[in-house]
Amino acid sequence: MNATESEPAMQVPLLDLKPQYRPLAAQIQAAIARVCASQHFILGAEVKALESSVAAYSHCRYGIGVSSGTDALLLALMALGIGPGDAVITSPFTFFATAGTIARTGARPLFCDIDPLTFNLSPAAVVAFLAQQCERRGSDLIHRASGVRLRAIMPVHLYGQVADMTALMELARDNGLKVIEDAAQAIGAADARGKRAGSFGDVGCLSFFPTKNLGAFGDAGMCVTNNAALAERMEILRVHGGKPKYYHALIGGNFRLDELQAAVLNIKLTHLDAWSTGRQKNAAFYDAAFGRAQLADAVRTPHAVSGARHIYNQYVIRVPQRDALRDKLSAAGVSTEIYYPVPLHLQQCFAYLGGRAGDFTQSERAAADTLALPIYPELNDTQLQYVVDMIAAHLPGKGG
Ligand SMILES: *Cc1c(COP(=O)(O)O)cnc(C)c1O
Lowest-confidence range among 47-56, 236-245, 294-303, 341-350? Predict the structure, then answer.
């Protein structure tokens, strides 16, 4: 009777891409065959088509297809001329690439804590940081302790929900800072006014890593922007900074997107809205099922900002004794993941920034008690209910 002592009654993977692929297989294989027949693999018609449709989908004028979400962030930072002596404000509760790319340009990541409800960069924390730790010197805004010049804010739309961009854009404007949105998890997410992820700041950075809502068959990404000059600069930097070819006014890199990946993504993009709706339906099922199980005290379900479009790249709950619950779920056939177990200010590679435990309490708490549940669109209600039942069975005082 105890699911942990015998074979689990069911297997619920965190993500299974096969049911998404199956109905599209013939169409995708034909598209791949066309690219193979053309033998045109780099920056061709497929990439161009994807750039214009993803830009439009993200309410932006320009799209620059790149090799990954990480390279999208790096390219945006390079195009804005951010480098040694500069600093970028961001969240410590995010995937490594957010701060990793800032550091790779030679700039300094400056962390501010998250809002505990949304897990996104807290405008209030940024206000306090600017007031307490930064000062104006001439036209520059300087971080007092390190002497670096603040250049940009990089908010992350974590789990598929847009950060508080109204407040963050106002802060950026008031302080002369650029805004690079890490929208890797948030393609098509929108705020309550319907404004989409990637369209608020100077550049929006998307990832098509296979686990994102729009996933390629490998690595891929895109920068979106409404700024023509920035778009052109990113296009040049994407091909080593050469314009014309072999003449370099700028030092760029190879950040190109493959035709094969773009061909797959052009097909998958037409299904993205349906997939995101499927995730929203699953999220609503979980919300209701946790309510029915009277787990409101023990399980904190995701806070969706009223009227906004959350695309649920992840459905992340907060629970006490998270690691023990995760082990029990694993034994019951339910896969989960922790996004992310170590906040970035406590990563070994960022020790030089001087971060200490206790610096960002909301991020540290989130790292300790959050758990991502299976949410992909093809899950059925029986599987979702099983996940909730297994959580109910194993929470303290709930008969586990
Ligand atoms: C996935 C992700 C990235 C990086 O994208 P890749 O395509 O894997 O390089 C950056 N930031 C966040 C928040 C992500 O989730």
Answer: 294-303
Residue 375 placed within a domain: yes
Distances 370 to 319, 338, 367 between C-alpha atoms, Å? 7, 7, 6
* Total domain count, the chain: 2
Structural domain of residue 345, as residue ranges?
272-394
Residues 224 and 345 in one domain: no
Q: How confident is the model at residue 7, as a pLDDT? A: 87
Protein residue closest via CA to atom 7 of ligand 1: 69
Could you tell me the distance, in angstroms and rounded to a whole number, from the CA of residue 124 to the centre of ligand 1?
Answer: 25
Pocket of ligand 1 (CB under 6 A): 68-70, 94-95, 97-98, 156, 182, 184-185, 207, 209, 219, 221
Whether 36 maps to a domain, the answer reads: yes
Q: Indicate the residue among 239, 269, 299 that finishes a domain.
A: 269
Does a structural domain hold residue 160? yes
Mutate which of 67, 88, 95 to test ligand 1's pocket (most atoms within 8 Å of Cβ)?
95
The pLDDT tens digits for 236-254 are 999 999 999 999 999 999 9
Question: Is 10 inside a domain boundary?
Answer: no
Q: Can you name the residues that pair with 203 across neighbouring β-strands?
A: 180
- 222's enclosing H/E stretch is strand 221-225
Instruction: Tell me the torsion sign for CA atoms 63, 68, 66, 232.
Output: positive
Question: Closest Cα partner for 187 from 286, 279, 101?
Answer: 279
CA of 207 to the centre of ligand 1 (A): 6
Worst-scoring range by mean pLDDT, 5-19, 83-97, 201-215, 308-322?
5-19
